[in-house]
Amino acid sequence: MVRPPTDSPPAATPSVVRHFGRLQLLQLLGKSARTMAWRVRDPHTGDALMLVLPRVQPAGADALDYWQQCARRAARLSHPQLADVVELGVQDGWPFVTHRLADTATLAERLPQAGLPSPEAAALAIDCLRGLAFAHEAGVSHDDLQPFLLLVNDHGALQVAGLAVASEQITAGDAHRNAGAVDPVALRARREAAERDVLACGIVLHTLLAGPDVMSSADVQRVAARMPPEGKEPLRLPWTTGHPVGEALRAIVNRSTDRQPQRRYRNARTLLRALEGWLQAESEEGGGPVALLLNRLRSSG
């Protein structure tokens, strides 16, 4: 029986090769309480892929079927800021998706300890929000947005990977109920899931500007759980960062993680417009690299 990948890296002995099905495990890219991502190699094609799977095996056939429904719906979406799904499958009861890596690395790998300059951070967040907004409007949420599930290529463009892999496990009755688009319970659950994605993006934006060490945990969802109203740890951008952050951008970032949920950005489009407006204003005032970033975002959008 093929077991799910463990948290530990492959053994140091060169002759030991670990596999998940036919895929050769090369490197653990990241893990959270809900998902795990590995760099793998497909021996049939020689391609380098990202393998994403949930940390908990679906409890029974109904839960697995519901997971596959969510994953298939997500895989059908096509957008420049959503990573294409190469394969969607199940290996000995463990569902998974793979994405092609090519010239990309995860945001967790590329993010320097001091964070990024404000225009670069805003541009990456804009890419993320464009992908999320498209998915949300199609009725799909991410459910576990993490830096290790955001792929950045050599040109600085970002794609969201692992969409819907962390879908909540529900009962067969819930799955039947959620199939109805007009069901008010399902609609509310979908809206709340989208709001959690936007909050997670705001937390990621904090790390882009202040560096990964600003977080009390590397798991974005754990950070969100510790914030009010559930927790007691508010998240605000520190006054001292590796790169200067202007007051207008600071206000946007802090609003995205405000301690009062009703004051946060409630959907991806709203936060997206705020960041695009800030970047446009910076371009008009300063030009230079900011204008080039804005042109890139316009062309990719």
Question: Could you explain the architecture of this structure?
Answer:
The chain is an alpha+beta fold. The chain has nine helices and nine strands. The chain has helices spanning 61-75, 107-110, 118-137, 172-178, 184-210, 220-226, 247-256, 268-286, 289-300; strands at residues 19-20, 23-31, 35-41, 48-54, 85-91, 94-100, 105-106, 150-152, 158-160. The strands form two sheets. It has a six-stranded antiparallel beta sheet with strand order 1-2-3-4-6-5, with helices on one face. A three-stranded antiparallel beta sheet has the order 7-8-9. β2 and β3 form a beta hairpin. α5 (184-210) crosses α6 and α8 runs antiparallel to α9 (289-300). The radius of gyration is 19 Å and the shape is globular. Residues 9-14 have low confidence and may be disordered.
* Percentage of residues in strands: 15-25%
Category by helix and strand content: alpha+beta
Q: Which strand order spans the largest sheet, edge to edge or round the barrel?
A: 1-2-3-4-6-5
- For the termini, the CA-CA separation is 45 Å
User: What's the mean pLDDT score?
Assistant: 88
Order of helices and strands: EEEEHEEEHHEEHHHHHH
State the helix count: 9
Instruction: Tell me the helix content.
Output: 40-55%
Oligomer: single chain
